[in-house]
Amino acid sequence: MSFDDHKFCVAPMMQYTDMHDRYLIRLISKKVFLYTEMIATGSLVYGKCFNQLDFNNEEHPIGVQLGGSNINDLVECSKKCEQYGYDEINLNVGCPSDRVQKGRFGACLMLEPQLVAECLNNMKNAVEIPVSIKCRLGVDNNESYDFLYNFISIVKKSGINIFIIHARNGILKGLSPRQNRNIPPLKYDYVYKLKKDFPDLEIIINGGIKNLHQSSEHLKKVDGVMIGRSAYENPFMLKDIESQFYGIDPATNSKKEILNQYLEYVNKQLVHGHSLSKMMKHLFGLSRGDKFAKSFRIKVLEIIKNNSLKGHEKELEDLLIY
Ligand SMILES: Cc1cc2nc3c(=O)[nH]c(=O)nc-3n(C[C@H](O)[C@H](O)[C@H](O)COP(=O)(O)O)c2cc1C
Question: Which helix (H) or strand (E) holds 28?
């Protein structure tokens, strides 16, 4: 892999970026780097919930995100994920939820850089594929650049060199995960400075990035951008990545084409027992900005409510304007 692979990434989002959503995104952009939702190591090692690791072949390049801090468990899961065919393993050091804190992983690990370095070093030595981290700027009132600098200096000793930075602090007590994605201020300048101080590291910036124009501004200062909510709310915005940033033709210019390819996929997955509602909900954003966006969303809702897609494909297509 090269630095170019992470130029555009879609953020891991629990309940959103499942294998179906990722398949939809991949229809829109061939280049964007995808990540799974966070998977807690305990649910693999002790719960044996391996179906969480399922993904479609078309999703490559794709990284799996693990949540945990037990070295043996992380090593075991990393090996398993490599066998499954993932292209990268990412460690979550950014989730501030209470449940995750109780398990001693996620954002609270920003206070334990030595442990994080040890985890990452062992993971890296256990697999051939790259290992990366997704972290915050700091936690609670550790708000200085020095805190972040110290964290990265220690973690870097693990030998990993892909750092995804959500450019705000995590607040461990008093804010919900949702508030933690909105209230702590974004400090992009910290991330830009990291790239200057650690030019050998691949630095990917995340948090509040709305569109490709903003992305191109960030890309003047860092190696990659990661977009979460905006890409989910309006996945079609990703279609110009190829033409604008790689000089190649976009996968398509037509939402109707994406819709039809996705519905073909949905029909195939229904046969394998996947839930219609879980697959259809990802389509809500496809009509974003269109004249009939509301009618399109109502139609999708109706299909979900009636649990039946058969015969409604054309009606959906007609509600998209191009
Ligand atoms: C519903 C939701 C679920 C999320 N789940 C995860 C997760 O599993 N792992 C993770 O590292 N970040 C998770 N995040 C945080 C995002 O990856 C990202 O860091 C954050 O939303 C900021 O980026 P954005 O402003 O582009 O959305 C989640 C965010 C949302 C909105």
Answer: helix 19-28
CATH numeric code, 3-246:
3.20.20.70
CA dist., res. 304 & res. 301, Å (int): 5
Q: Which of 9, 77, 81, 95 is catalytic?
A: 95
User: What is the predicted pLDDT for the residue at 2?
Assistant: 60
Residue in this structure with the two tokens 């693999």, named with its chain if needed: 44
pTM: 0.97
Question: pLDDT of 215-234, one tens digit each?
Answer: 999 999 999 999 999 999 99
The Cα diameter of the chain in Å comes to 59
Q: How far is the CA of 184 from the centre of ligand 1 (A)?
A: 14
Tell me the three state secondary structure of residue 106: helix
Q: Could you confirm whether 9 is annotated as catalytic?
A: no
Distance from C-alpha of 163 to C-alpha of 222, rounded to nearest angstrom: 11
Sheet containing strand 88-93, edge to edge, reads: 8-10, 224-227, 202-206, 162-166, 131-135, 88-93, 62-67, 34-40
Stretch 10-31: mean pLDDT, rounded? 97
Q: Is 95 in the pocket of ligand 1 (CB under 6 A)?
A: yes
pLDDT at residue 5 greater than cutoff 90: no
